[in-house]
Amino acid sequence: MSVGLPPEDPKAQEAVGEVEIPVAVPRDAEHWAKLVSTLDVTNAPEGAVNRNVTGKSLVSPIQGFGKMWQKTYKVPLRGAEATPVEVIKEWKANFPSFWPPRNFFYGGLTGIAPGDVALLNLTMPGRLKLSTGVFVLFADDESFTFMNPQGHMFAGWITFSSYRKSDVTVAQAQVLIRANDPIYEIGMMLGGHGKEDKFWNQTLTNLSRHFGADEEVETQIVCVDKKRQWSKAKNVWHNAAIRSGIYMAGTPFRLMAKPFRADKQL
Amino acid sequence: MTDNTLSIEVRPAGQATSVIDIKGDVTADSEDVLTDAYTEASAQKIRAIVLNFTGLDYMNSSGIGLLVTLLVRANRQRQKVIAYGLNEHYRQIFQLTRLDEAISICDDEATALRAAGA
Description:
The complex is a heterodimer.
Chain A: H1 10-14, E1 58-59, E2 68-76, H2 84-93, E3 104-106, E4 117-123, E5 129-139, E6 143-149, E7 154-165, E8 168-179, H3 182-210, E9 218-225, H4 240-249, H5 251-265
Antiparallel strand pairs in A: 1-6, 2-8, 2-9, 3-4, 4-5, 5-6, 6-7, 7-8
Chain B: E1 6-12, E2 17-26, H1 31-41, E3 48-59, H2 61-76, E4 80-84, H3 88-96, E5 104-106, H4 109-116
Parallel strand pairs in B: 2-3, 3-4, 4-5
Antiparallel strand pairs in B: 1-2
């Protein structure tokens, strides 16, 4: 299928002035999110902490600070009858239920669609609740990809996919990321990588069990770029962990001030 | 270089520039073909890689990921990466994924080669 090319038939070219030529729609058009400059959360679900997302730009691995990593976590769903399309349909529909406990994903009511913004409330070491989000960059029948906003631990994206290999359906999560700023990079060096690997291992194990399989998750880690991008150190301004920590520290004061604010409104 | 859905040709353009013509689908399956093409394009002392997307039919997020890793390899070799032939849809994807901040986008091959200094 040609995309955006003029008609090759000379007769069709002659008719350009008279007939409206339909613009060819690229095959992947419906799977990609529309262009946005910043994120906007309009209807935050009840119970979700909606911070560090609205007004933030998206960041690819190019805009991050730390070393660039490609990590692939995959599990064969041996014995399961599900096709890749069925696996992704189920994964999209019940995405939060496969996550490890005490981590919350607040997505759209209809599942996961291109352009959706989901809120993440994650439990970090020291009982810190990290509030951030993700943007659904791409979604088709056999894969979907989240891209992260400024302030998230990682600049980059994660792709969830499913495919057939040797007559077995495989479920896979693959991240292409850099730590967003120097503080996150230090965190990654001090055990963050291990925690992240454990998180996705547990997620894929839960998914695998959901389909009646119980194979071990295979992890492949490649350091794509050893260089740190010092020009991006200023990303720390948006650091969602620091901002969430400050917000948590201010909670008692906000509670004390609440009655006065309510009086004022009356 | 081809797989089922992608065919890639590499051609020199001047002494220090290679053009990679991409035709078909860029997906996770394209990794080997794209890597081989980059290796061939960089065989000489190349200062710039020009990616011709005129024949691009389909690209998913894994395809974008491959372009990021290609960009990292090129940066390591101190090579510029320039793209042309992107239609409006793919230009927007480059903007959305902020790839346009690292890969210069030109309207046509002549402009791309001028930007490459060929």
